[in-house]
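Hi,

Apologies if this is the wrong queue. I'm a grad student, and the batch job for O-methyltransferase MdmC from Geodia barretti produced an output file that my downstream script rejects. I'm not sure whether the problem is my script or the file. Here is the sequence I used:
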Amino acid sequence: MTDWKTLGLGAVAGLGVAGAVAAGYALLKRGRGRAYKTFKSYQTNDPLTLYVNSQNRENAVLGRLRATSTELAMGRMTTGQDVGNLLTLLTRSLGARKVVSMALSLPDDGKVIACDVSEEFTNVAKPYWEEGGVADKIDLRIKPATETLQELLDGGEAGTFDLVFIDADKVNYLKYYEMAMELLRPGGLVVVDNALWSGWVADPQVQDVHTNSIRAVNDRMGTDPRVDYVLLSVSDGIGIACKR
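Support response: The file is valid. Your script probably expects a header line. Output copied below for reference.
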């Protein structure tokens, strides 16, 4: 049987996901001259959003971890319940066992490579990994994600991953995508979070490096002949590419 794997780059408050990468968001707070907007489902009282969340079942341990994460100084980086459920559904529908980065939806022989640069945030998540019974599936790598991805490629793991979730520093999104495509098997998925970036990708007057980096990866995924692609207006935007 294939050794299915997942790879997770960056910020998700979830079982099997490291925690939060603070660097890109710290830059977001400085010097932009405009308010930070969010489309996270836990930060709104919109009746329709509340209804959607009420219909989406959530693992109890995952819910407690999400609640803990949102109380932290960088809590706005926490992934919403809707996105978490979507990632779980995608992982299970693939029959994935080798991924970055959803341990809760993996079978007993599944493996998560969780990439992060913050021991502070990942230490918040670790007790919940134990409580959720997924700690033994998680291979946490505390270093720049580009280094971990290159190590995986150099170690002969190209074409062996089922799913790669990208939610790390935005400047490197396009680099992460290209390396992820090398790691994925045919039929595997790349999932890119924050693809709408608070709506700034649609504003031609916004030309900072983070917004332009997200525009670049959206454009690349949308025109890449190697994949089938959809951009969804879920939460802060989700881009999904299936490797042909």
